[in-house]
Design a protein that fits this description.
CATH topology of the largest domain in chain A: Immunoglobulin-like
Helix content of chain A: under 10%
Largest sheet of chain B: 22 strands, antiparallel, barrel
Strand content of chain B: over 45%
CATH class of the largest domain in chain A: Mainly Beta
CATH superfamily of the largest domain in chain B: TonB-dependent receptor, beta-barrel domain
Largest interface: A-B, 40 and 59 residues
CATH class of the largest domain in chain B: Mainly Beta
Number of domains of chain A: 2
Radius of gyration of chain A: 19 Å
Largest sheet of chain A: 5 strands, antiparallel
Order of helices and strands of chain A: HEEEEEEEEEEEEEEEEE
Distance between the termini of chain B: 28 Å
Structural class of chain B: mainly beta
Low-confidence stretches of chain A: 1-16
Distance between the termini of chain A: 64 Å
Shape of chain A: globular
CATH superfamily of the largest domain in chain A: Immunoglobulins
Oligomer: heterodimer
Shape of chain B: globular
CATH topology of the largest domain in chain B: Maltoporin, Chain A
Number of strands of chain B: 45
Number of helices of chain A: 1
Radius of gyration of chain B: 27 Å
CATH architecture of the largest domain in chain A: Sandwich
Structural class of chain A: mainly beta
Number of strands of chain A: 17
Number of domains of chain B: 3
Low-confidence stretches of chain B: 1-21, 102-112
């Protein structure tokens, strides 16, 4: 009988760049509003994206496909109407054009019950509510948020300049070694498919 | 078994005595040629009558009066080179035996022993411990032989990739039994040091019915008998400190004991500063030990015991989060230990050989990843094995044997499916389906075999046999016919062919959780030529083709649904084919050893009936190795060696895009054709320098072994950024110097 042996290399199989950087085209989140809706209802789908310039924006995807479901486009997103004859937890595939390239994303929908998305009331810098992320050069700033979530939340912080520590925790540390302006974004997910986001300008004078 | 060959060769080499009238007394003295001291307890064999005389305290021996004529006497002692002399009884004989030192001695390699199948090769200890770039590691030395692929030594499942087959398809037997763990800490060093090895016999295919549980190749490791003279060494090297002591057990026995421990755990704190984000919960360390004892009960009866043990420990903790795999974050720890003990009784005389051995083994391992992913295994086994050979008439050998093993296991696992051959990606501990089960039970395996070796004339030998394996846990019985043929075309040229069925049981990693799997099968065929080109120069050329079926493959892709108890993870739908040509040009002389090895090979797989054929993960079309080691100086006080290797790059599966899984906040790659691209070819140069200082009572040596002198780091894989738009090469260690010092008595 041979022993199953893993090795340290297994633990090293992680991404080779900083995932928090807003310096390239990427989809940050796809949202279903509300997170769940009971039979008979519909959900609206939009997306939060980042581009090469570091800008973050909420967009209506170019297309959304949900196997078998009726999908219609409106000005604020794609609407998916529930159907009693189809699976209650279908997967939506959204296509978004960012900087001229098409990016794909998946999002699981839920038509079994009603459940809202989490909410982010405000961001905090060093414990104080803030409208702008402001910090001095070489001065770490602790970022947090006032979040209302039902269940376990996971956090994803992003920044278009400077650096972030603990960017997958409820409190992150932002620091820049030079003067710059840009964006800090936070995406909060719960463990039932709910998602919320908040974007603030950031400045290091 | 090795000694049997030596004795048989010696006895067969002598002429038949002529009977004469009148009795004579043949006697003499056996001495150490270096010290001149008489040697007690040494056995002197008389070929004509199979009598044995044992030397007394004065080194003297004497045979009972016998008929006058020509006597052929041989002295065989594990601490000395063999010696033989003729006698007509007219004068006393003086044997002066040349001692074998602990390190660097020429091991008795039976040049009279013909290979059973094409591609076989032996590595004596002197070569094992001096191959440049191997740091004296036996399994690293084997990697220089034809048919063994040059693969990442620190992979998920390190091992030997022989003739295009997965590591688990080959076996390494130590004194007839497999060991559960080949390497410390996932590949740093093999668990048995070269100094405890008598020799290695590498059989990449076509091996006999005595060996099973391998559908590719095997390596037979014969451990060394201890010397009957007290001796030993202490060695401090780059990674480890080790020592060996050997000596007599009474008048008729000997022992050798070795222990080795790494001191990486002492070095790391000096070079890796601790930090808040990274700390070692258990500094990496390993140790192993071996003990062998031999006792000559009677002229033809011998007892031997061997114990090998190994213990590894490693743990690391970090507060950094893996964003794509949060459950992988936090900690990683691994402990592994095993002990195997073997007790064997051997009856060995010309024409009759039997070895009965029993072995017990206990194994414990623990792997913990993050806060809630783990694998805990405990396996105990008891095995009995008997090998018999008799020569009822001249030129006909009958071979028979059997093996029975029973084991108990306790497996507690909560992990994603382990990586399988052909998987393009590694497991994700957070999002992949989990094996989550606790299994205990007993399993047994039986095997029996029989063969006939026919050697009606010196120029031909035919071996026909069958092995029957009863994999009782899987309720499968397989009969495996095998045949080997050797034909001497001329004094210096032999043609070898082999054909047969070989199986590998479904016991690799989590395959143990699925009882309905069948063993993997391989029909092997090989044809080769061995040619002696001159004194000490041989050339072996081999062509082979292996046809594999019932290969165990994953039923679903990694993210696909599977039972958490592991009962439906795999299926036997895979097939494979491997073919190639191997060449080994070997040169040996008093001061030099070296060889050129070249392998051309292809290895392909098809996992499911509707799939297309693809390259095997470790397919390696070209592998060239040239190495040599030369002893310089009047007293051979310098030894210089170098090794060059060129190999094709390994196949890999290209990433063609990625899709963002919003609920998991990670990108999932999409892949192109499996293993359709290749990493860059690799080439590297290793050097080794040894220097010996000989004093009156002891010897000091120092060595420098440098791998990858010109720092051409091999590419082993690619690592991607979060959205798979950029990649960086994962390379091996660019240069690895190793320095060691040894004192030897």
């Amino acid at each position: 009988m041979r022993i199953a042996i893993a090795c340290a290399a297994l633990a090293a199989c992680t991404s080779s760049t900083d995932p928090y950087r807003l310096d390239h085209a990427q989809i940050l989140a796809v949202r279903s509003e509300p997170a769940h809706v009971a039979a008979g209802g519909s959900v609206r789908i939009d997306a939060l994206i980042g581009d090469d310039s570091g800008a973050v924006s909420v967009v209506v995807p170019d297309s959304v496909e949900v196997d078998g479901y009726a999908v219609t486009r409106a000005g604020d997103g794609w609407y998916v109407q529930s159907s009693p004859s189809l699976p209650v937890a279908p997967t939506a595939t959204a296509a978004v054009t960012i900087d001229g390239a098409i990016w794909l994303a998946t999002k699981q929908l839920d038509f079994a019950d009603d459940r809202p998305n989490p909410t982010i009331a405000a961001m905090q810098v060093d414990g104080a509510a803030a409208e702008t992320i402001a910090a001095a050069p070489h001065a770490p700033a602790t970022l947090a948020a006032e979040v209302a979530v039902d269940g376990t939340a996971s956090y994803a912080w992003y920044a278009s300049f400077g650096s972030l520590e603990r960017y997958r925790s409820s409190e992150a540390t932002f620091e820049s070694d030079r003067s710059d302006t840009g964006t800090v974004a936070l995406v909060v997910r719960d463990d039932q498919g709910g998602v919320a986001w908040l974007t603030l300008p950031a400045a290091v004078p | 078994m090795r000694s049997r060959w030596i004795i048989a060769a010696l006895l067969a080499a002598s002429a038949v005595a002529r009977a004469q009238e009148g009795d004579v007394v043949v006697s003499g003295v056996v001495k150490d040629s270096a010290t001149g001291k008489p040697l007690a307890g040494v056995s002197v064999y008389r070929e004509e009558t199979d009598e044995v005389a044992v030397t007394d305290e004065r080194g003297a021996f004497s045979f009972p009066p016998g008929p006058a004529g020509r006597w052929h006497l041989a002295v065989i002692d594990p601490s000395y080179q063999k010696a033989e002399l003729p006698s007509d009884g007219s004068a006393a004989l003086d044997f002066e035996l040349v001692p074998l030192s602990v390190q660097g001695e020429e091991i008795v390699v039976e040049t009279t022993r013909d290979h059973d199948s094409a591609g076989e090769a032996e590595l004596p200890r002197d070569e094992v411990t001096h191959v440049p770039g191997s740091n004296g590691d036996p399994l690293k030395a084997i990697r220089n032989l034809p048919g063994v692929a040059n693969t990442n030594p620190l992979g998920f499942q390190p091992g030997l990739v022989i003739r295009g087959s997965a590591p688990q398809d080959s076996q390494i037997f130590v004194d007839g039994f497999e060991i559960p763990l080949l390497y410390h800490l996932g590949g740093i060093q093999s668990v048995i040091p070269g100094e405890m090895i008598e020799d290695l016999l590498y059989q990449p295919g076509g091996f006999g019915v005595e060996w099973g549980d391998a559908s590719s190749g095997i390596v037979q490791v014969t451990t060394r008998e201890g010397s009957r003279q007290w001796g030993g060494f202490a060695d401090v090297s780059f990674l480890t400190a080790q020592g060996l002591v050997q000596g007599p057990i009474g008048k008729d026995g000997s022992f050798a004991a070795a222990v080795r421990r790494s001191y990486i755990d002492a070095v790391i704190p000096l070079v890796v500063p601790t930090s808040d984000s990274l700390s070692f919960t258990a500094l990496p360390r390993y140790y192993d030990y071996q003990l062998r004892a031999d006792y000559q009960l009677a002229p033809h009866w011998k007892l031997d015991a061997f114990v090998i043990g190994s213990d590894d420990d490693f743990g690391i903790a970090t507060d950094a989060t893996n964003p794509d795999d949060p459950d992988l974050s936090g900690q990683f720890s691994q402990t592994t230990s095993f002990t195997r003990g073997i007790l064997a009784a051997t009856y060995d005389r010309p024409g009759v050989y039997n070895r009965l051995a029993v072995s017990a083994m206990t194994t414990d391992s623990s792997l913990r990843v993050g806060s809630d992913r783990y694998l805990e295994t405990g396996i105990d086994s008891l095995t009995a094995r008997d090998e018999a050979r008799i020569e009822p008439v001249h030129g006909v050998w009958l071979v028979a044997g059997g093996q029975a093993e029973i084991r108990s296991y306790d497996v507690d696992v909560k992990l994603p499916r382990p990586p399988a051959e052909g998987d393009p990606d590694m497991p994700n501990f957070t999002y992949d389906p989990l094996l989550d089960t606790h299994a205990t039970g007993d399993a047994s395996q039986l095997a029996t075999w029989a063969a006939t070796e026919l050697e009606p004339a010196a120029w031909t030998r035919t071996t026909l046999g069958v092995r029957v394996d009863d994999f009782r846990r899987n309720h499968v019985v397989v009969a495996e016919p095998r045949a080997q043929q050797r034909i001497a075309l001329a004094d210096s040229t032999a043609l070898l062919g082999a054909f047969g069925l070989y199986t590998r049981p479904p016991d690799n990693q989590d395959e143990n959780l699925q009882a309905d799997l069948k063993p993997e099968r391989a029909w092997q065929s090989s044809l080769g030529v061995e040619q002696k080109l001159g004194r000490g120069v041989t050339l072996q050329t081999t062509a082979y083709y292996n046809d594999q079926s019932d290969l165990i493959v994953a039923r679903e892709q990694r993210a696909g649904a599977m039972a958490s108890d592991g009962s439906d993870t795999y299926e036997n739908t895979g097939i494979g084919k491997e073919y190639g040509v191997e060449m080994l040009l070997k040169i040996q002389s008093e001061r030099f050893f070296g060889w050129a090895s070249y392998t051309f090979s292809r290895s392909e797989r098809r996992d499911h009936p509707d799939d297309a054929w693809r390259m095997f993960d470790d397919d390696q079309p070209h592998n060239l190795i040239v190495l040599g080691s030369y002893k310089l100086g009047a007293a051979k006080q310098w030894q210089l060696g170098a090794r060059f290797q060129y190999t094709s790059g390994a196949p890999y599966t290209p990433v063609t895009g990625a899709i963002f899984a919003s609920d998991q906040n990670r990108y999932l790659p999409s892949y192109g054709t499996t293993n359709s691209l290749r990493e860059p070819a690799q080439d590297q140069l290793d050097i080794r320098i040894d220097h010996y200082w000989t004093f009156q009572r002891w010897k000091l040596s120092a060595y420098l072994d440098v791998s990858n002198v010109y720092m051409n780091a091999p590419v082993y894989s690619y690592q991607y950024n979060d959205n798979y738009t950029k990649r960086t090469a994962v390379t091996g260690i660019p240069i690895l110097p190793a320095l060691g010092v040894r004192g030897e008595l």
